[in-house]
Amino acid sequence: MASVVVVGGGAAGLSTAYYLHRAAPHLHITLLEADARLGGKITTVAEHGFVLEGGPDAVVRYKPWALELMHQLGLENQIVGTKPAHPSALIHDGREALPIPAGLQMVIPGDLKALAQSPLLSPFGKARAALELLLPKGTPEDEPFGAFIERRLGRQVWERLVAPLSGGIYGGDPYELSTLAAFPQLKALEQQHGSLIRGAIQQRKARGSREKGQLFASLEGGLGRLVEAIQARLGRVEIRLNTTVTALERSGGWRIHTTQGSLQADALVLATPAPVTGCLLEPLHPEAAAALRQIPYGPSSTVTFAFAKEKLPPRVGHGMLMAAHRGFSVRGFTWADQKWPGRAPEGYGLVRAYFSGLEASKEELAQLALRDLARLWGQVPEPLHTWVFRWPEGLPRYTVGHRERVAQALKAEELSGLFLVGAAYQGVGLPEVIRMGQEVAERVLAYTGAQARDGAPVG
């Protein structure tokens, strides 16, 4: 019987183990996790009648892989959308909070009338954005995302619209993102249509409305239910928590040395952060290890406050994002009780602050969040409860040159029976990570020659 070891019990490792076991339950699969729990950054807390997310709080509907997995797990009746809200979110420009223009495609205006009517941009900013329709297309080469948007649409669109919308997706400064790695679709729009706005308008016509008009989805009781459901379906998969891999050895397969002993495997899946993967592979593939260590990571954090609703000022929509360079520490706030059903008891509000790229203690993060709330509200009531989650290396930064670094890193798979998976490579966010887990599971099955049960598909 072939054996597979998956290192890392976050979303990437969990989905890989699930798809392997689903297609070939006779495989001997061992899942190793250094922490005391599975799920990685999926961290749902249910306390004092509140349900909150320490990490991701939603999946996007237009990337289907997470929703497909939920259906496979029998969770379709627990999928929830966001509460109705118009506008759904605001952007604070440093002086006031203004609605996000309607008709956006990804982060690009796809409705010229809505853009013209938006108070988020000045008349000059709107004219500069409209000029984009007449500009010649640039080269297909990579460039910093902020420079790309400013070149096409102007600085106002970048600072007041695109930077706030994109800043919460990837770690670090969104200006420095690799356009080709983080938003390849936008480069494609420019090359195919000669204009981002023209391409966004065409996309909007082709796609029509989102499913039920909603962009985001979650689960009743939070995304932690997804982790629980996967774990319940792992069957005979051996799960070892509190187990850190210390070294790897090639020995007619793979020898995995851990803090809890050693084990042998025919195939090895590393679903660990890129720096960890690089350290493990240094003795075996120095070139790939060097590339892995060059993939930068940045801190991300969330702070959630529970308040008595009667003491809160009126809150519009699902939350608020902050325009770039306006002196805010937070990237944005989510009014969780107004965004999702069942997240707070009657009469209470739940406010979540999101930070990216800021190194600070838990106490400092809570104070910074309260300071920014005071800037919005004038006076902030005393929180009834506070939850702080810090991820010191929370998000990979897809900076310029990312695709080349990933290509070098994936040369590690020249080592027979080794597979890499995770958010560091080809997409962040739960749907993308789940997709990569499914694809890696297919390749592992092909490598081991494992036969799928009764022709069962991997996905």
From TrEMBL:
This is Coproporphyrinogen III oxidase. NCBIfam families: proto_IX_ox (TIGR00562). InterPro entries: Amino_oxidase, FAD/NAD-bd_sf, Protoporphyrinogen_oxidase, Zeta_carotene_desat/Oxidored. Belongs to the protoporphyrinogen/coproporphyrinogen oxidase family. Coproporphyrinogen III oxidase subfamily. It catalyses: coproporphyrinogen III + 3 O2 = coproporphyrin III + 3 H2O2. One of its GO terms (molecular function) is oxygen-dependent protoporphyrinogen oxidase activity. Keywords: Cytoplasm, FAD, Flavoprotein, Heme biosynthesis, Oxidoreductase. GO terms for biological process: heme biosynthetic process. GO terms for cellular component: cytoplasm. Pathway: Porphyrin-containing compound metabolism; protoheme biosynthesis. It holds the Pfam family Amino_oxidase. It comes from the Bacteria. Residues 12-445 form the Amine oxidase domain. Its cofactor is FAD. The keyword Oxidoreductase applies. It is found in: Cytoplasm. Involved in coproporphyrin-dependent heme b biosynthesis. Catalyzes the oxidation of coproporphyrinogen III to coproporphyrin III. Its EC number is 1.3.3.15. The keyword rRNA-binding does not apply.
